[in-house]
Design goal:
Blueprint lengths: L11 E3 L6 E3 L13 E3 L4 E4 L13 E3 L4 E5 L13 E3 L4 E4 L13 E3 L4 E2 L4 H4 L7 E3 L6 E3 L12 E3 L4 E4 L13 E3 L4 E4 L13 E3 L4 E4 L3 H4 L6 E3 L4 E4 L14 E3 L4 E5 L12 E3 L4 E4 L13 E3 L4 E5 L12 E3 L4 E4 L11 E12 L13 E5 L20 E11 L9 E3 L4 E4 L13 E3 L4 E5 L12 E3 L4 E4 L3 H4 L6 E3 L4 E5 L4 H4 L11 E7 L2 E3 L14 E6 L11 H5 L14 E3 L2 E5 L3
Parallel strand pairs: 1-3, 2-4, 3-5, 4-6, 5-7, 6-8, 7-9, 8-10, 9-11, 11-13, 12-14, 13-15, 14-16, 15-17, 16-18, 17-19, 18-20, 19-21, 20-22, 21-23, 22-24, 23-25, 24-26, 25-27, 26-28, 27-32, 28-33, 32-34, 33-35, 34-36, 35-37, 36-38, 37-39, 39-40
Antiparallel strand pairs: 29-31, 30-42, 31-42, 40-44, 41-43
Length: about 600
């Protein structure tokens, strides 16, 4: 037991990240009457928050985050309000609300109550704090509407109400002053439209309204905010067109993530003016027209997701000039013409990821006999994992793996596309030989097009390639031996083509079921019949990071799946994807067609 017999002059006490446990605090700690900064975070303290802390009336900073405190926040704690500037109770099991006595915390500048079990709507109490700059109450169970009284917090810079149960409209008048920098309301049940007076928040940098029920168009006043860096509103019912006059003089916009809405009209030429863009996601909307050649202006663009729209024309070869592009998803559009060879141009970016734990997305497999690997890149900050299930593909619904990712700048063009999905379009011609230069490629999906010719014998250099989908094309000839020698291959689909000859008897290809090769009249060989899950990982870890790489699996072939799985499972950072979610085992063999 710690003792503080003589601490009359002690002003700072940091005991964070130790193995402190038990309930209460040493009574002798109250002898430290000049204590200003007390940090007990990241320990194993439990029970109610000790009311004795209320005797330390000179405290300016109190941090009890990431412990196991439970019960209500004691009103007695407000006795320290006279000088208190920061109160951090994040990551406990606190319930109830904020006692009204905390209205006396007139000096309080930062309040973090996130990731608890708070339920009552106590924001009216907080709104009386005149110097509050940071308010974080995310990942609680707070209900009701967002109170208009928050406009009284005229110094507020960060408002984070993410992942609660707020309903109603976004209140107008949140910017009676121009102090607000971040507005984070993702993962609630808000409805209605965005108030146009949000454009008065001229210093706003981040807006995240994802996963609500908001509708209407995004006001032009919001698009024109001069300092806006992140406009993240995916998973709503927004409609209308993206305006033409945005990003004048380059703009500050870095992340524009509007997928899973109802935006319509042509792909806006104005987006090619947003030269600071790193992530552009407009998938699952109703966009039409062609991708403009000026897309090459976006030299910082790392992630481009435009799948599930009605885009037409050729895939512009100018995409190859986007020197930072490593993630390209154009799936399920109406693109025609050939695959540009320029997509293989070298990149100045690589993708690093870290495994962060898995969540079970469904109690049983409802995905059919042989599910496919589905990879989705979703901005995940402020969203509860369980709310992601409805965005999974219906044939890959068994598991969800969460992986934090970051893009790393390289001094030389040593990277390449990591993810390339051009499936379900009307592409023709042959598979470009230039793909041999995509040294970092891990996921390749060219299925459901009208590609012809042979499968290029180019895979020997693509040692990181793990998923290859070429099904439902008009490919002919034999399966190249280089495809059979991929050391990390964990799923493949060559079905529904005109391939011929024997399936190479390589260990990687022998593990896949006959369905991956069926409807190729000239193909022959033995294949395993099926794979079934043999283990069910269930431990969960705290989710971290700014955005998340979501990997969904049904019953899939192959013994393991993932890019650099082994490394990430052991906690090391690697280039792409994560460790196995489900371990597989063989269920025997079936004759595809005997080779003569």
């Amino acid at each position: 037991m710690l003792e503080f017999g003589s601490c009359a002059s002690l002003q700072v006490l940091n005991l964070s990240n130790n193995a402190l446990s038990g309930t209460g605090i040493p009574q002798s700690l109250t002898n430290c009457q000049l204590l200003k900064n007390l940090d007990l975070s990241h320990n194993k303290l439990q029970g109610k928050i000790p009311i004795e802390l209320g005797h330390l009336r000179n405290l300016t900073h109190l941090t009890l985050a990431n412990n196991n405190f439970s019960g209500d926040i004691p009103p007695e704690l407000s006795s320290i309000c006279g000088n208190l500037q920061e109160l951090d109770l994040f990551g406990n099991n606190l319930s109830g609300g904020m006692p009204h006595s905390f209205t006396s915390c007139k000096c309080l500048q930062s309040l973090n109550l996130g990731q608890n079990q708070l339920s009552s709507n106590f924001l009216n109490t907080i709104s009386s704090l005149p110097n509050l700059k940071i308010l974080q109450v995310s990942f609680n169970n707070i209900t009701g509407t967002i109170p208009m009284s928050l406009r009284n917090c005229t110094q507020l810079q960060v408002l984070d109400l993410s992942s609660n149960a707020f309903t109603g409209n976004i209140p107008s008048g949140l910017c009676t002053s121009s102090s607000l920098l971040e507005l984070l309301l993702a993962g609630n049940s808000l409805f209605g439209s965005i108030p146009s007076d949000l454009g008065n928040c001229i210093n706003l940098i981040v807006i995240n309204l994802s996963l609500n029920n908001l509708s209407g168009s995004i006001p032009l006043e919001v698009w024109m905010l001069p300092k806006l860096s992140d406009l993240i509103m995916w998973g709503n019912n927004f409609s209308g067109e993206i305006p033409k006059g945005i990003c004048l003089n380059g703009g500050n916009l870095q992340r524009l993530i509007l997928n899973n809405n109802q935006f319509s009209g042509a792909f806006p030429e104005s987006l090619t003016n947003c030269t600071n863009l790193t992530w552009l996601s407009l998938c699952d909307n109703q966009l039409q027209g062609e991708i403009p050649a000026n897309i090459q202006n976006l030299q910082k663009l790392s992630i481009l997701q435009l799948s599930n729209n009605s885009l037409t024309g050729a895939i512009p070869q100018e995409l190859g000039n986007c020197s930072s592009l490593i993630w390209l998803n154009l799936r399920s559009n109406q693109f025609t013409g050939k695959i540009p060879t320029e997509l293989a141009n070298p990149r100045y970016q690589i993708l690093r990821v870290r495994y962060t734990g898995e969540k079970k997305a469904a109690e049983e497999n409802k995905c059919g006999k042989y599910g496919r690997i589905a990879v989705k890149l979703l901005y995940f900050k402020g969203i509860r994992p369980e709310n992601m299930v409805r965005f999974l593909d219906p044939d890959t619904c068994l598991w969800v793996n969460f992986i934090s990712v970051s893009v790393v700048q390289t001094p030389k063009p040593q990277g390449s596309l990591v993810y390339l999905d051009l499936s379900s379009n009307f592409l023709s011609g042959s598979i470009p030989q230039s793909l041999v230069y995509m040294h970092s490629l891990s996921y390749l999906n060219l299925g459901y097009n009208s590609l012809t010719g042979t499968i290029p014998n180019m895979f020997r250099n693509l040692t990181g390639l793990e998923v290859v989908y070429l099904s439902h094309n008009h490919l002919d000839g034999e399966i190249p031996l280089s495809l059979a020698s991929l050391p990390r291959l964990i799923d493949i689909d060559l079905s529904n083509n005109s391939l011929s000859g024997p399936i190479p008897r390589a260990r990687q290809l022998l593990s896949f079921p006959a369905s991956r090769f069926e409807n190729n009249s000239g193909l022959c060989g033995h294949q395993f019949k099926a794979w079934v899950a043999s283990e069910d990982p269930s431990e969960e870890e705290e989710l971290e990071g700014w955005f998340w790489f979501v990997v969904a699996m049904g019953f899939i072939s192959g013994a393991v799946w993932g890019i650099s799985f082994t490394e990430i499972w052991s906690g090391r950072i690697e280039y792409l994807l994560g460790d196995v979610i489900i371990l597989m085992q063989s269920k025997g063999t079936t004759l595809l067609k005997k080779c003569s």
